[in-house]
Write a structure and sequence with these properties.
The protein is an alpha/beta fold. It has two domains: 84 residues, DNA polymerase, domain 1 (Orthogonal Bundle), CATH 1.10.150; 248 residues, Metal-dependent hydrolases (TIM Barrel). It is 45% helix and 10% strand. The protein is elongated and about 70 Å long.
Length: 343
């Protein structure tokens, strides 16, 4: 086992880097105060607390600080510190801006065919005006009746309309897709034959969001193993603002993200202000696991296409690299990645 590091020094370094990146003062203060508290303790007593799992009994020590101290005591460079070091202390806004500048498209866009407010053409033209090369049209699937989800017949008609629009809008491309409901057993709410014809499939949970942790874990892993699914949308289903706030669903994130890596699927960073999903804690775990991500607007109206920077800032703050973002790929490379899932 490697020699213990100095946890107080690691905590002070994190505080410094957070300050350099212009992160909120309360977060900087939490790490700096924890550093002072840890430095005042006898090293043996601190190690005993870590071994007994009682670090959180100390004032001001929460889950993130507990994990950081424990990693340092085990001789590991803390994950939190490693991620901040990777950003070089650059401000989050600068890093988020760089991620946004590298985006080629948006993989989660709705139209008035389901619960969006504008025609497909209008959404496409506005995305083009924002500098995108493509969007993935992802209207809802049949079981989400409240959102006017597309039956197989209506989806067939939409595919024909998209083909006509692509002929007129070239070189801009509307990639065919769907936001398929992930049903309680992990299956996708659309026929496999139709899903196989789509360019990119986003799968999201919209029902039974309070399912227990074990069945929800199984549900998400089953969906990720499905060769037709490419992107796991707003994975916790939380709502953080607005008229209907909702806590996140619970699942074993390590297992789910390991499955995403195993099957080379992407975890969505949903940029809608009321979602901002996944929470940063989970997004950091996804980064550590090596997951690909898709930074999407989940736009239901033209102006909402401009919400991607909210997702880019969150992604940058959690250490997402540009090489992990699937919608930073040119259209043909994105399509090749998605097709490989069905090979």
């Amino acid at each position: 086992m490697p020699d213990p590091r100095d946890p107080a020094a690691d905590l002070r370094r994190i505080a410094f880097l957070l300050e350099t990146a212009n992160e909120p003062t309360f977060r900087v203060r939490a790490f700096r105060n924890a550093a002072a508290r840890v430095a005042a303790l006898d090293p043996g007593h601190l190690a005993q607390r870590a071994a007994a799992g009682t670090l959180r009994d100390l004032p001001g020590i929460g889950e993130v600080l507990e994990r950081t101290i424990a990693e340092s005591l085990h001789g590991e460079e803390p994950v939190y510190l490693r991620r901040l070091m990777a950003t070089g202390g650059r401000p989050v806004a600068e890093l988020g801006g760089a991620l946004c500048a590298g985006l080629r498209g948006d993989c989660h866009v709705h139209s008035d065919w389901s619960d969006g407010g504008s025609p497909i053409k209008e959404m496409a033209e506005n995305a083009r005006d924002l500098g995108h090369d493509y969007i993935v049209l992802t209207d809802h699937s049949p079981s989400l009746r409240v959102a006017n989800g597309l039956s197989a017949e209506r989806l067939e008609r939409q595919l024909a309309e998209v083909a006509e629009l692509n002929a007129a809008l070239s070189p801009f491309r509307i990639l065919t897709g769907i936001e398929a409901d992930i049903l309680s057993d992990g299956s996708l709410d659309q026929t496999p034959a139709l899903l196989s014809r789509l360019d990119v499939v986003v799968g999201s949970v919209h029902s039974e969001l309070r399912m227990g942790e074990r069945p929800m874990t199984r549900r998400l892993v089953t969906a990720l193993a499905n060769p037709h699914l490419d992107i796991l949308g707003h994975c916790t289903g939380r709502m953080v603002t607005g008229k209907r706030t909702r806590p996140p669903s619970t699942f074993d994130a390590e297992i789910v993200f390991a499955a995403a890596v195993r099957f080379d699927k992407a975890i969505e960073v949903n940029a809608r202000p009321e979602r901002l999903d996944p929470p940063k804690r989970l997004l950091r775990l996804a980064v550590e696991a090596g997951c690909r991500v898709a930074v999407d607007s989940d736009a239901h109206a033209p102006g909402q296409l401009a919400w991607q920077p909210y997702g880019c800032d969150r992604a940058a703050a959690c250490g997402v690299g540009a090489d992990a973002v699937v919608n930073a790929l040119p259209a043909e490379e994105l399509l090749a990645w998605a097709r490989a899932h069905e090979a």
